[in-house]
Amino acid sequence: MAIRPQQARPVPPPLVAALDALRRELGIPDDFPPEVHAAAIRAAAAFPPGAPGSPVRKEERADHTDLALVTIDPEGSRDLDQAVFIEQTEGGFTVWYAIADVAAFVTAGDPVDLEAHRRGQTLYAPHQRTPLHPPELSEDTASLLPGQDRPAVLWCLGLDARGELQSTSVTRSLVRSRVQLTYREVQEQLDAGTAPRAWQLLRTVGQLRERIERERGGVSLRIPEQEVVVEQEQWHVVHRSALPVEGWNAQISLLTGIAAARLMLDARVGLLRTLPPAAESSVRKLRTTAEALSIPWPGDMSYPDFVHGLDPEIGAHAAMLYSCTLLFRGAGYEAFNGALPEQRAHSALATPYAHVTAPLRRLVDRYGSEICLAISAGRPVPDWVLAALPQLPAEMAASSRTASAYERGIVNMVEAMALAPHAGEAFTATVVDVKPDGSRGTIVIRDPAVEVSLAVPGLPLGGAITVRLANVDVSEGRSEFELVQGTTPRQAPEATPGQSPVPQH
């Protein structure tokens, strides 16, 4: 599921009390304490580097404002973490990736830092953001807004002609983004053949990195996301498949995270984003599921190649993709200093990986950036970073639980609001998941975009059924369906695995 960054929107009356109750239940604050706002304002006033009171000296920053960097984000974003510029070289490509330098404004132990540790990450809702950092920083002075000189952690990644990473450097720099773009704008120009050369290289490098990901055994599941959107002040849920450019842009972030992990592992200090490998028995269950759904999976075909060939618009394939989420359980963070952790890889990516590209929105990235800066410069990692490392995995786990509960709660409420006028009506649904004992399953309705559990034995995995909306409660975010008589479920295969959430990389 996804809730896209948007400007503040009025809340539909049926949701006002329910959203307030959800935020209270999860302990989500409405604003920052006055002392945090005051500290952010002081930090913003101390920019640019070299100004009185600035935490970063001017001579520590190289001037790279000549790079034609651009940001590519969802429409309405203000917290711009990343700006990219790609150029072709004689032997391959150079990827310049500028990341907002939060540590230029936030000092360990100051009010902004302490509040960021309490929050962990930015939370999004259609009517408001709950940012990790005060908007004076996250949506203004620290954000890589176009036409503004900004402090950045600048990655320079050298790739060969195949897209393989050959060299890495990371430095504190001063940058200036040229323009703020949306995914749709870039995709439309690429499709029309009118995109500038640097955008075309984003597609080229993105596709090369996607191929490399598949070759090493990594998998990105293309399951259409439930997304809450607001159009003319109307809230509703849609199923949205990502644009190709979103995947190519994500590959640049993944490339940077892979480069960061290599630096950390070589220096034996860092914070990795990890995911345990899937058990062989889980892969066998997936093959059984594919057989039950009549989806060919030759014995010599790898799991990544199999998944890449699935079309989420086909009912049986959608069910298969949901079953594939079985392999994505237990994502977390591993902090280390000295001894290397036993679990080092992110199994969905099939490589070690670290979070360093979203410090305005995610707490750990500021620490990952500082570790890589120190390693790249041949300096010791700062003491304030090492002191925080042990507790960061637990802090991020707690904030992720809150974020998941918040997003799921909002989606459930908006689903219920959209369904409320249709009580008693029948809908066609696709069965995308069946529990191992066959007692219940998960169904998806396309319009309105609804995903809900159905307590009916023997649902036909991948099949279409007719259901009736039996009960709906907007305040509770609850929608209950019943199977329409005349629809005949069949016995689900014993080995069909249950659904599990897909972790964010």
Describe the structure.
A five-stranded mixed β-sheet has the order 2-9-8-5-4. The protein has a five-stranded antiparallel β-sheet with strand order 19-18-17-20-21. 34% of the residues lie in helices and 24% in strands. The longest helix is centred in the last third of the chain and has 28 residues, at 392-419. α1 packs antiparallel against α13, α6 (197-215) crosses α7 (244-267) and α7 (244-267) packs across α11 (363-377). With 505 residues, it is α+β, with helices and mostly antiparallel strands. The model is unreliable at 50-59 and 490-504 (pLDDT under 50). The chain has helices spanning 13-26, 34-45, 111-119, 135-141, 183-192, 197-215, 244-267, 280-292, 303-308, 315-324, 363-377, 383-388, 392-419; strands spanning 2-3, 62-63, 70-73, 82-88, 92-100, 123-125, 128-130, 149-160, 165-176, 179-182, 225-231, 234-240, 269-274, 332-337, 345-346, 351-352, 426-434, 441-445, 450-454, 464-473, 478-483.
